[in-house]
Amino acid sequence: MRDVIIVGGGPAGLNAALILGRCRRDVLLCDAGNPRNAATPLTWGVFTRDGTPPFTLREQAHADLDRYDTVERREIEVVAARRGERGFEVELADATRESARRLILATGLRQDLPKVEGFETYWGTGVHSCPYCDGYENRDQAIVAYGRGHASCGLALELSCWSRNVTLCTDGADESLDAKDRERLARNGIRIVETPIARLSGDGQQAERLTFQDGQTIPCSGVFLMPVDCEPSHLLRQLGCDIKETGVVPTKNDYEKTNVPGLFVAGDASRRVQFAVVAAAEGAMAAFAINMELIAEDTA
Fold first, then answer.
1. Is the dihedral of CA 257, 58, 228, 168 positive or negative?
2. Which are the contacts of 183, defined by CB distance < 8 A and separation ≥ 6?
């Protein structure tokens, strides 16, 4: 039986493996190889690595892990997991099974895009989920907040940090956007368009305009999506993990512990601040907590 199995090879899983490797723990890192940020050209906001392509960061992380002989990496999906008396057992896509005393799920979340023509084409280059990651590259340009209700007002106001040319598009009449929010948006120079969207178009590389079903168009270099409920990993449900309605896993004591003893989550599945650097920090915190638990067990 291994010390730890980590499911997911993004920043959270990779940093957890690094810390545990340095603790000389027997670790298996399983990565299906389809990261959420695969369509993102560059990763921003990571000190000393600002603007590095995501796959370059992963390659460097793999090289770092290869220095530790107790860490094994496999590019394979974990299809099932269960908790037993001694720890956890996972089933891999090749039908093999592995067991460990502790389990970290760093699987992230799946981003479901609104069904608007062009959103998938420009996902990662003109359609974004995080203004802190991509707002700077759209500074002082025409940008769009996409969403409904009070939260969409907050997103539009947030975007005004990067541009004074912000439009809130609700993609249809939005009765949930109340008068107080509408007045606040108007006071801050943010236009509201409730006409359904027909398409986002551009030159194939960069978004340029948003066209509505009534034929009107507005310039648009970037669309920022209001955070939406996401479907978490099926492994969380298999293991009996508490999950909020938004798809986020509540964790305890800032150490990424779940309600299931021995099960930790790190990265996008654990909270709404979905920065690469925060995910890496969560992986480190989970690794620290696990190592302390294992020390306590082994020295009791």
1. positive
2. none
